[in-house]
Amino acid sequence: MGVAGLWPLLEPTQLVMTLTALSLTTFGATSRGFCIGIDASIWFFHAEYGKEGENPELCMLFFQCAQLLSQGFLPLFIFDGPLRPDIKRRKQINKSVNKLVTGMQDMIEAFGFEHCTGPGEAEAELAFLNRIGLIDGILSDDSTIEKAKVYTYTLPHPAFPDLNPKNLIFIALCSGGDYGTGDTPKFWLDVYAVNCDIFTLI
Question: How does strand 74-79 pair with strand 114-117?
Answer without folding.
Answer: parallel
